[in-house]
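Obj.: predict assembly geometry.
Materials: sequence records (below).
Method: joint structure prediction, all chains together.
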Amino acid sequence: MAQATTTARRRTRRLNPIDAFLWLIRIVAVVVILVGLTNSLTSGRLSAQQWRDLMVFGVSQGSVYALIALGYTLVYGVLKFINFAHGEVFMSSTMIGFFAADALARSGMWNDQPIVSLFIVLIVCMLTSTLVAITLERVAYRPLRGSPRLVPLITSIGASFFLQYTFAGLFGVGTRSWPQVEILQGSWQFLGFRIVRTQAVVILAALAMMALLYVFVERTRTGRAMRAVAEDQETAALMGIDVNRTIVVVFGVGGAMAGVAGFLWGLAFQTVFFFTGFLPGIKAFTAAVLGGIGNIAGAMVGGISLGIFEQVGPSAVLAGLGVEGFNQLKDVVAFTALVLVLIFRPSGILGERLSEERA
Amino acid sequence: MRTRKRRAGALTAVVLSFMLVAAACGDDAAEPEFGDLGGVVVPPQGAVRIAALQAISGAVANLGADQVRAIQIAIDDFGPIEGHQVFLSIEDDLCLSAGGNTGASRIIADTQIIGVVGTSCSGAGVPASELISQAGRVMISGSNTSPSLTSTGNLEGNPVRADNWSEGYFRTAHNDEYQGDGAGQFLADFLGVASAAFIHDGDPYTEGLVNQARTAFESRGGTTAFFGAVGKDDTDMRPILTEVAAAGPEVLFFPIFQPAGDFIAKQAPEIAGFENIQLMGADGLLSQTFLSLPETEGMYFSGPAGRSSPEYDAMVAKYQELYNEPPVQAFHAHAYDAATLLMTKIAEVAEAQDDGTLHVDLRALRDALYATSGFQGLTGTITCNEFGDCAEPRISVYQNLDPSAGIGGTVGNVVWP
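Observations (raw structure tokens):
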């Protein structure tokens, strides 16, 4: 007891100017957010139904971020570097998926057999991005294994440009538009929430994929090998794990998740061009950091939180603070949210389980 | 020691010979007398060089590509200047401020380029016009419509220089004070709408236009239910559309660009409460790819008034023949006029020399452009004022009744005035 009080006293005495400043920022941030929220919620500008709609938009956008974020976090967990070309892996699947969807729409199958068509396009998307991710690993990253961490990082930025402009060169710089899915027009009612059908599909598919991935990593032999390689590559190799193969699997699985994200993007936003991967890629990376990078559950939580922050935040906080044109500032809200979360929890929402060595 | 001496000797020889050559050159070609902005000397057999700074990539590529094609046709129609072919360099303005900056920097780095036809977007035009003006060159845009590039106060008959005005900047497109006013009149007087929502994307073009439309609408008794902005790269418009639906206007006016405009049109039907909100855009969205979207059926668009003349029809026929499709945007005629005006004035001030060179004085060119009066173009009579506004501003509102008919169908369907 006495000891505890001494520690507490020591802590108070150690409150240096930097800590005090951080606390000040925390308090100001909380006050500003609370004022904005109260003003918005009491103004009656949006109905309860509309607030619920915004939440649904956030979860739907966030699920796409979460799926892409998984790729960042898986690679980071195993290789400790950020694969900045992952946004382009995502874009490649939406782009190639467009050609599959367009061909099916032209043949009439898209409307005659929508479920089968969607499934075919999903497979095409996943195969494309898996292939791109694995090729990237083999060509750009494996030769650099063992070099300082900044080397693959810079390489990944180069790879990102390479992929963007390869796609621009192959398919032109114009935008491509995915066909509409007839059976996904309209909306469903669910527990008082009104969910646009495409968004329901986006959310359900994303959740299903994340659950599958979780089971894969936690319950299968390959998953265990991935975790072992993430802990310690050398020891894993000594235990008979094929490290190279495991790393290929990590890239492949991350790529497949980006493929699903690309497919869902095609359904929800329909438009794709060679630069489509950039912003979602950055957002997904933000989501991965927000949730605690290297942590699979963290990527999911981070993605969905980021989606909600950016879709609900402008209306809920900025509008209440009287900011003009607040919808334009959703990226500001997203990145401010990142800063705020990191001020409160420097290792991300679920980042606590990371040991010093891994982080 | 010996080698060092020898090296020093060799160096001196090289330096001396350079000085000799330089002196010889100086004697040979006496610098032509140019005004304070300098001039361009087109060598014998050399081309008269002009540049196009247009949005030719990404979702707005239609806007720039349409104008580049029109400029090529104008060059072809105009023919050589004093026996010198006209050669066009093409730069991309990306429809962004950064793109205008880079493109203009590349253009002014090439001292043979006399003038520029561009930019496509007002946002790119702000830095580009400043750089090109400082470099002494001239720039004529066929589609910048933001008042901030030339003058404000036109509707009151008392125009004053706007914030981003630069000397040597001209345009054959209208000033959006007229378009905003037209859109406001159309909403309040023609449609009889009582409340409207406005969305811009932060670009000087879109922001200027919605502000003007809002002022005109409110001065005629309308109320603004919602006034907001989206980002150019935003893809999910559902939150702002939810805000619009909550405000309950009769019309949503969003004179922005693609692809943001596509997302608004596509996502609006998903939002509850949007069934009775009429959509309206402006000339930035009068594009083949936007008008082909099934969701844009019934939408209104303000834009420059079309003009049919045998000359215009001949130009469209040529366009069709060369590019296998009809014009894909609303500003090809303006760009054609801009290019023709530029070449006409270059031909007017150019002085052919005995040795076959051509001297173009940039001060004389700038003055000649400001003196433009009664120039007959495809878009009407072009007369430039002291702020660089040269167009005869006539605005129409069109309605898209059949997305499968594309831009040709929409601009053929004038509903106002």
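Conclusions so far: The radius of gyration of chain B is 25 Å.
To do: check interface contacts against the pulldown list.
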